[in-house]
Amino acid sequence: MSKKKNQRLVAGMAAVVVAMAMTELAGAQVSQFAITKQAEFSQTTTAAPTTPTGWSLQSEIFFSPGDIIYCEVIPPAPGATVAMFREPERPSAAIGGTQTYPTSAALDADYPAGPYTMSIVTGGLAGQQATVQMPQAVYAPIIPAISPASFNAIQSYNPASGPLHLSWSTFQTPAGFTEGEIVARLVPVGGDSDFFAFEEGGPAEDFSSVDVPASILGAEQQFTLELSYYVRNVTPGAGFDGADGEVEFLYITRSLVTVVPEPGALGWFGLAALPLTRRRR
Known about the structure:
By secondary structure, the protein is mainly β.
């Protein structure tokens, strides 16, 4: 997502300072902010993946109306600043992602547990701050993976057969955390990764499957299925004049969905007419 730039050690606490360059806009306000540590996996067989492709830090501040054009984060230990440009029409400013760490220990060395402070530096909200406490990393007890039957189904899915049924294992939210959540998304291959064609989520303890409508899946198209397991602490009114703050630990597994309808069947399906939804995070 972003490129690393420079570094600073923050004395006395672990802090991430997010600097925002934004246009002045009456009524603009922060609606939510989040810091996420995540590991990414790829499922290429019926077996669940075991080795992450990388670990990274993500962070976002959600604005309303959302006219953010630039942000950066400065890590609290040896590392480098992460920066990302966001177009004015985007709903949030995001940081992190392109610096990939080989292990969770390497990620934690640059982004240790402790208080993380976000500060808006310029624009109409300049001077507002928020701090959330990053605990020691605790991820879901299992790695996300769709069931063998679901994996076989996405290798060559025909919309004429009806909805695409996807299933996976649930998990219990670890003690000391506010909530666990499972989210399934479909992102068109070759499209903007900030937009998805389908999203549904629910509590980690009981959201175990979903039926994707056939109309969502365009003829002869490919999609990336993202199955995300969140472990999250939510602090209501944590900062920015009452915005909720979130600290999350995320496992995300991606799989390829190939749509191959019968010749002439469902010809009216197509990605060109597919309404896409903007990604939340």
